[in-house]
Each structure stands twice: as structure tokens, then as C-alpha cells.
Design goal:
The structure is a single chain. By secondary structure, the chain is mainly α. It is about 55% helix and about 0% strand. The protein folds into two domains: about 350 residues, Glycosyltransferase (Alpha/alpha barrel); about 250 residues, Glycosyltransferase. The chain contains 24 helices and four strands. Helix 10 runs antiparallel to helix 11, helix 12 packs parallel to helix 15 and helix 17 runs parallel beside helix 19. The longest helix has 21 residues. The chain starts with a helix and ends with a helix.
């Protein structure tokens, strides 16, 4: 390979040392999510509604942060480096209506209104509502909360509620298992919003149908009680400031200021405020970031010394402690999964469960306790698999809403995790594992696009058509499939070769990768591409017959690795990119992603050169 070994080793030492040095005293990685204008706007609105004088300092600091982080065009994006979008801009504009001294913020408000007029065609309530609904289509999970906050803040005129579609909150009294059959217009994780926002709409605009009006009237107390039962101890629904804020402001507006759900939600909002006046989109991704870090470092041939046994045992115990051992009170998920965070508002999901299972195997301390946990996790993942063979995020069968469908990146991650543990399972579970993997491979073949790419679910790129990120998705599927045993690699060879050809075709002239061809290269996307392509080395003989050129592969990996090496000559210049998609397609970046992804890629390249 055309790579300077000394420079490679220097960069690898830099990223590896930074990653290990970021481990907390609890032997995990907490990471740091980007601050969010959207979370900040919803948080200060909730604070203003509950007690403006009591929370004045937090409110003022939040408003000042919004002013300091507005884009040049007058709008706001989901992160300080994201392009302006209608959701965040309209919420920030609404939040300013709650300010104590509106004259101080006249210019910011006028600039936001100018942006909204260009984007929505005007500021009249009907146009704004139409623009928000248009963005989200049939999924009302986020459109209705946005418009509800605008109504509460007085931004939709004197009679806003006819513009806001009501939510059938009375359906929350049914058992959770029936929700997917009730054709709710919200996704599986949005029960808290369904109840709170449904109630505030009912409070202001009673339905004309007398039967519906009666059902909603008599279900108010019961659904409010259910809201309290599914609220985590720390008050934060899904650890999300935005969701929790929507719940709080809706309950206050519906006359439930003194309700325990409101009180606990306010405590969560206060505790998650940052010193700079902002709020993040979520508390943290500690479990996700920890598993990614372990799996990146494990690519080192000297992993046992990179993370000594005592450290690995401590990480292992931390991960075992995060596994859900009981039915989850919010989504009624069975035991066995992991969430993205160690905080109490997390919900078990496929990607984090797969990451935890892989990390537990890579830590290489396989005892009875770990095997028991792994079998629970594998069973949980298999139980989530849809009929199409794909793996969804949270709930089996919720296929109609964007963030509840099967996804190739989640499926490949799950396949990799399941295959890691077949050798220690009993015969019955091993049979289930093999069947699950076969179905998943069929799904992956059917979901691969004609150009060889896969589109991921929870990651995107603002500069790519439809905000997709085929480079990320394809790399993730490749990494998952290339971790399978040789027999399965042969089955997947056509898919893998086509995906490799796609990845090489979208490499930028500078040697890096963006979300697609011609999109600015980032550390995250380049690292994943290099990691994925480097995984072919050692398996060229199996795949070359299908049309994969070893020379082209080596050139692509070399150029990508050299691009990464140059990025880490100055640690202070390393900047994360907003490629993450949170609930409701909200962009975020995680400050640890560049370091984690680059460690995995450079470790793999280093091992190839050494070999």
C-alpha cells in the first residue's frame, strides 16, 4: 500500500490515545452530543410557561445562546453547523414570543420571519401549518407538537386549534401490543406525546362527534395516569429534552401545571441545561459510544495490552449492567435488549443491542454470566425480526412510519452480533440464529439498490439528495457482512462486490468520502469507507472471481487512509460532522464519532500492512 508507515503509526497513536483517554472513571465512554437549537427553544418555552420568574436565568441564557448560534440566513439548524430548516426555525421563532423583553430580540425575530416567509410563502397560520405538515408527510409525530408549541406561544393567531390535527390520545388506554393494529399516526416511541398533546388539543377544541368527545373526556384521567407510569424516574422521556418539553408545555396549557409528570419533567429540563445556555438533543449515547469504542479498539492485534484485563472486566460489567432484565415499562419490550444510554429514559433497540453483543464478545472474557446475557440478547434481536427478514429499531411490525421500518444497516449489525455467539448457544437457539441470518441475508439482497448501495435509517447527510447517506449505510452493511464466517461470506459475495464497487465509485478526488459522490469528505464517512474496504483484504481470493480488483481496492484504501492521516496532524482541528439522525429526523453530531471511526479504520489498515 502507498502509505507512510511512520505517519500511519503516529496518527493511529493519536486517535487511539485520545479514545482511551476519553474513558470515564466508570470505564465507559459517555461522549458529548451537539447542542441543539430545537431542544433549547422547547426547553425555554416550557420553563417560561411553568414559572418565568423562577427560571429567568435559564431562559435568558437559552435565548442568548439561540441568538449567538443563528445562521447567516436568519434561520436555525438542528446543530450549530447545520443548515436552517423549517422545524427548528419556527420553534425558535415561537420561543422568542415568550421572552420577557421582546424589544431586545427584534432583529433576530425579524430575520427569522424573513426566512420563514421565503420558505413557507408567508407567516399566516395556514401557510405555516401547511409547510410543517408537508415536511413530515403522513407521520404526525413531530409536525403536531411543533404546531402545538406555536399555538401555545401565540404564533398561529387567536384560533389556532382547527389548524392542528387532533391526536386520538384515548387509544393509549389500550394494551401496548395493540398499537400497531390501531393505525396510529405516530411512531412507536411517541406515546408520551400522543397523550399530552392529545389532551391539550382536547382542552381547547372539543371534537364535534359526541361519541368521540365522550370517549376523550372519560379517558383523560386514565391516560394521564398512564403517562405518569411510563415516565422515567429522572423525568426525561427517552432522555430527550424536546419530547419532555413538549409534554410539559402541553400539560401546563391543559391545566395540569401541578401534576407530578410536569414536576418531574421540569426537573429533567433543569438538570440537562448546559453552562453555555443550550440543551443537547439527548442526555448522551453512552452505551452506543462505549460499544463503538470497544469494537474499534479490538481491531488492534495487541488489544489485550491496549485495554488490559482489569479495564476490560470493568467495561464488561458496565455493559452487563445496562442490559434490560425486565419488561420495559414504556414500550413493553421483553428482557434482553440494550438502549443507547445508561440513563433511565432509554429504550432497548436493535442497533445498540447488536453493538453491545459484539463488544461483549470482543472483550474476550466469556464466562457463564456473559453467555447468559448474550443468549438473552440474541433471542431479543431475533424476536424483533420482521417478516421481510429485516430488523427494525424498536418494535416488530411497525412498518408504515419512517423510523419504525426494517433497515439494512440495523439488519447487518444484528447479523454480525448473532453470528458472534452461535458457537456458545444450545442447539435450539443455534438453529434459530442460522434461520434468522438466512432471512436477514435475503432481506439485505432485496434492499440493496441497483448501484450497489444501501441507505441507512438513523444517519444521513444534509448535502445529499433526500438527506440520505448511502456511503454510511453501505459501509455499515459491508462491515457487518464481512465479519461473518467464510461460508456465509461466499453466499454474500455478489452483494459485497457490488457494494465495494459502489464505494470506490463515490470516493472523492481528495481521497476521502462524503455521504455520496462529490459531497464534502468527512472523517466519519471516510473512516467507515476505509474500514469497510479494508475488510476485504485476506478474502480477495473468495471475492475476486466476482469481479473485485485487488489493485483498485488497495488504491482506494491507501488514498482514504492518507486522507485520514492528514486530518489528525492537528488534534484541535478535528471537527465532528452532523451525520446523525435523531427521532423525527433531527440532525446531531457526536464529538466522539471522528475518533472512534478513525481508530477502527486505521487499526484495520495497520493490521493489513503488518500482515
Amino acid at each position: 500500500m502507498d502509505i507512510n508507515k511512520n505517519k500511519l503509526e503516529q496518527s493511529l497513536n493519536t486517535v487511539r490515545s485520545h479514545l482511551i483517554g476519553s474513558m470515564t472513571n466508570d470505564c465507559c465512554w459517555e461522549g458529548r452530543l451537539s447542542s441543539s437549537a430545537l431542544s433549547t427553544a422547547t426547553a425555554i418555552t416550557s420553563l417560561s410557561l411553568v414559572d418565568r420568574s423562577k427560571y429567568k436565568n435559564l431562559i435568558d441564557a437559552g435565548i442568548e445562546w439561540l441568538i449567538a448560534n443563528v445562521n447567516d440566513d436568519g434561520g436555525w439548524g438542528d446543530t450549530p453547523v447545520s443548515e436552517s430548516n423549517i422545524s427548528t426555525t419556527v420553534l425558535c421563532w415561537a420561543a422568542f414570543a415568550m421572552a420577557d423583553e421582546p424589544d431586545r430580540y427584534t432583529q433576530a425575530v425579524e430575520n427569522a420571519e424573513s426566512w420563514l416567509i421565503k420558505r413557507a410563502g408567508g407567516l399566516d397560520p395556514g401557510r405555516l401549518a401547511e409547510a410543517v405538515y408537508h415536511k413530515y408527510g403522513k407521520d404526525r409525530t413531530f409536525a403536531i407538537p411543533i404546531l402545538t408549541m406555536c399555538a401555545i406561544c401565540g404564533r398561529l393567531g387567536p384560533n389556532p386549534w382547527p389548524l392542528i390535527k387532533p391526536l386520538a390520545f384515548e387509544l393509549a388506554i389500550f394494551p401496548h401490543g395493540l398499537y400497531k393494529w390501531l393505525r396510529l399516526s405516530v411512531v412507536s416511541y411517541a406515546l408520551a406525546a400522543l397523550i399530552a398533546i392529545g389532551q391539550v388539543h382536547f382542552h381547547h377544541a372539543k371534537p364535534k362527534n359526541p361519541l368521540v368527545r365522550f370517549l376523550r373526556f372519560i379517558s383523560r384521567r386514565q391516560t394521564l395516569s398512564k403517562l405518569g407510569r411510563i415516565q422515567p424516574d429522572n423525568g426525561g422521556f427517552l432522555e430527550a429534552v424536546t419530547l419532555t418539553s413538549f409534554v410539559v408545555m402541553s400539560l401546563v396549557e391543559a391545566g395540569h401545571r401541578d401534576n407530578i409528570v410536569t414536576s418531574k419533567g421540569m426537573n429533567f429540563i433543569q438538570k440537562t441545561a448546559r453552562e453555555d445556555g443550550s440543551w443537547p438533543i439527548d442526555t448522551n449515547l453512552a452505551t452506543w459510544v462505549t460499544t463503538l469504542s470497544v469494537n474499534a479498539l479490538s481491531a488492534d492485534a495487541d488489544f489485550a495490552n491496549v485495554l488490559p484485563l482489569a479495564k476490560r472486566r470493568a467495561i464488561q460489567q458496565w455493559l452487563l449492567d445496562q442490559q434490560y432484565r425486565h419488561i420495559h415499562p414504556y414500550v413493553q419490550a421483553p428482557p434482553g435488549g440494550w438502549a443507547w444510554t445508561d440513563a433511565p429514559g432509554g429504550v432497548p433497540d436493535a442497533d445498540d443491542s447488536a453493538g453491545a453483543l459484539i463488544a461483549l464478545r470482543n472483550l474476550d472474557i466469556v464466562d457463564d454470566e456473559v453467555i447468559k446475557a448474550a443468549c438473552m440478547g440474541v433471542n431479543w434481536l431475533i424476536g424483533l425480526q420482521n417478516r421481510d427478514g429485516g430488523i427494525p429499531t424498536f418494535c416488530k411490525g411497525w412498518k408504515d412510519m419512517p423510523f419504525d421500518r426494517s433497515a439494512p444497516d440495523l439488519t447487518a449489525h444484528a447479523v454480525a452480533a448473532i453470528s458472534k455467539w452461535i458457537d456458545v448457544t444450545d442447539a435450539r437457539l443455534a438453529k434459530r440464529c442460522r434461520g434468522s441470518i438466512e432471512l436477514a441475508i435475503i432481506y439485505l439482497a432485496s434492499s440493496q439498490r441497483a448501484d450497489g448501495s444501501w441507505v441507512p435509517l438513523w444517519f444521513g447527510n444534509e448535502a445529499v439528495d433526500y438527506k440520505q447517506n448511502p456511503a454510511y449505510g453501505t459501509a455499515r452493511v459491508m462491515i457487518g457482512l464481512l465479519s461473518l464466517p467464510d461460508k456465509l461470506i461466499s453466499v454474500c459475495a455478489p452483494m459485497l462486490v457490488n457494494s465495494a464497487l459502489y464505494m470506490m465509485s463515490v470516493q472523492n478526488d481528495d481521497g476521502g468520502w462524503g455521504g455520496a459522490k462529490g459531497v464534502r469528505s468527512t472523517i466519519e464517512e471516510t473512516s467507515l469507507a476505509v474500514d469497510a474496504l479494508a475488510g476485504f483484504f485476506g478474502r480477495i481470493s473468495e471475492l475476486q472471481v466476482a469481479g473485485l480488483s485487488a489493485e483498485l481496492l488497495e488504491t482506494a484504501v491507501s488514498k482514504g487512509a492518507n486522507w485520514l492521516i492528514e486530518r489528525f496532524t492537528d488534534e484541535q482541528a478535528v471537527k465532528p460532522a452532523p451525520i446523525g439522525l435523531y427521532f423525527a429526523s433531527l440532525w446531531y453530531y457526536e464529538e466522539m464519532y471522528p475518533w472512534i471511526f478513525a481508530t477502527a479504520a486505521l487499526e484495520k489498515v495497520s493490521s493489513i500492512i503488518a500482515y
